[in-house]
Amino acid sequence: MQDNLHSSWLQLLDSEFKAPYFERLQAFVEEEYTEHQCFPPKHQIFAAFNHCLVKDVKVVLIGQDPYHGPGQANGLSFSVNDGIAPPPSLKNIFKELETDLQKPIPTSGNLENWAKQGVLLLNATLTVRAHSAGSHQGKGWETFTDAVISKLSQEKEGLVFLLWGGKAQKKVKLIGPKKHHILTAGHPSPLSANRGYWFGNKHFGKTNEILECKGLTPIDW
Rounded to two decimals, what is the model's pTM? Predict the structure, then answer.
């Protein structure tokens, strides 16, 4: 499953791939993709990593699990393929981006360009069965992605972690707060956003201010 993963991530996560839980996870994913329609396509399961190499990571944006509708998921959290209408959460992300940076709302919901600039768009669960949200939760992906967060926290300094919503905010225990910057807000889903927990967080501008203070290139959101 990880055969097409970039060598920098293979090296960082070598112990995870050799762990018994990952062997069980791999067998589960293989069976699911054989017997059911699952997303993202197999070759994009690790797209978040291949578009954002270890050395390039500046920002970590944590989602939950992939979109479960046909043609949506492309392996990047909150992102959809070109030509696919942005789901409600992504629409609210773009609305906040527009307000925060006075930028026009993007014409595509594909966030690959963010990833290529150093934003690791990491879902807690990397696969899902079609039309069945959360169907691959509790199978081992969370153990793996928690390890990704922990190892990045240990190996790097000055990362910006964007934790949107209660589930993402629970990952704070994996992050060294003295080494990194943690920005929290409500989830951009309509349920949270419409209650006032999302809009106005200004995380895009704040992230760029942090990066610029460190002499790093800001993200062209």
Answer: 0.97
